[in-house]
Structure formats: C-alpha cells, structure tokens
C-alpha cells in the first residue's frame, strides 16, 4: 500500500492529506495482522519527495530520486520490511527530519507550507484573470 512520510508528523496546511496517510498506515498494519499466516505480503511504502509532476520537483538529486530509481529501490524491500521509506536516501532523510523535536518540525513545516500555499493561491488567481 502506498502512503507517505506525511503520516509521521502532523502537517499544517496539509491536514487532510497527512491524516489520510496515517489511516493508510494503520489499515496496512491491521491487514498485515489479519493476513499474517496466509503468505500474503502487505507492505506500506512511505516515500518523501520523488521527481514527478505531482510533487512539482522536476530535477532529481540525492534526496529526490526519479520515479524509476525510486521504484527499483522500493521493489527490493518487498518481503524484507513491512513498512519502508522505499529507498536509502529517503530513509536517511526521514531519520534526520523525524529525529528533531516535533514542535520544531511543525514550526518549520508551517513556515514552508504556508509560503507554498500562498504561492499556489496566487498562481490560481493569476490563471483565473
């Protein structure tokens, strides 16, 4: 099941997205328990940013892999771990991000996401003119 790293911390300005990712992680955990003795593998993949149209990241770099690179790495984790960031780069990034105190993470996210939200609103308003 695909979730997101957004499940690991409250995300101001992305409340619905973040909370649905928490739900996916919880559902995956329940399904893993239900199907534990059937041989069915239920894995939760929780990526950070991948260079796609949805993420709006056009360029790849160490922490933002291409979809192909990310998929190759994520497939290698099937059957090894029940929940994964999908690639080593995202695991390193998550350890750094989610290792800081939550109040600080939320403060930083709020600043970044509010600015992003305001830019997107302006873009929408400019398109409607």
TrEMBL record:
<dbReference type="GO" id="GO:0006694">
    <property type="term" value="P:steroid biosynthetic process"/>
</dbReference>
<dbReference type="Pfam" id="PF00106">
    <property type="entry name" value="adh_short"/>
</dbReference>
<keyword id="KW-0443">Lipid metabolism</keyword>
<keyword id="KW-0752">Steroid biosynthesis</keyword>
<keyword id="KW-0444">Lipid biosynthesis</keyword>
<dbReference type="GO" id="GO:0005783">
    <property type="term" value="C:endoplasmic reticulum"/>
</dbReference>
<dbReference type="GO" id="GO:0016491">
    <property type="term" value="F:oxidoreductase activity"/>
</dbReference>
<protein>
    <submittedName>
        <fullName>Uncharacterized protein</fullName>
    </submittedName>
</protein>
<keyword id="KW-0560">Oxidoreductase</keyword>
<dbReference type="GO" id="GO:0030497">
    <property type="term" value="P:fatty acid elongation"/>
</dbReference>
<dbReference type="InterPro" id="IPR036291">
    <property type="entry name" value="NAD(P)-bd_dom_sf"/>
</dbReference>
<dbReference type="InterPro" id="IPR002347">
    <property type="entry name" value="SDR_fam"/>
</dbReference>
<comment type="similarity">
    <text>Belongs to the short-chain dehydrogenases/reductases (SDR) family. 17-beta-HSD 3 subfamily.</text>
</comment>
<keyword id="KW-0521">NADP</keyword>
């Amino acid at each position: 099941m695909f979730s997101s790293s957004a499940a690991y911390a409250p995300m101001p300005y992305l409340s619905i997205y973040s909370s649905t990712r928490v739900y996916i992680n919880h559902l995956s955990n329940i399904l893993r328990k239900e199907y534990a003795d059937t041989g069915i593998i239920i894995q939760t993949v929780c990526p950070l940013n991948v260079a796609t149209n949805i993420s709006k990241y056009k360029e790849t770099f160490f922490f933002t892999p291409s979809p192909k690179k990310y998929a190759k790495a994520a497939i290698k984790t099937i059957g090894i771990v029940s929940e994964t960031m999908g690639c080593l780069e995202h695991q390193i990034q998550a350890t750094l991000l989610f290792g800081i105190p939550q109040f600080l993470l939320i403060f930083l996210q709020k600043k970044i996401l509010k600015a992003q939200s305001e830019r997107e609103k302006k873009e929408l308003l400019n398109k409607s003119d």
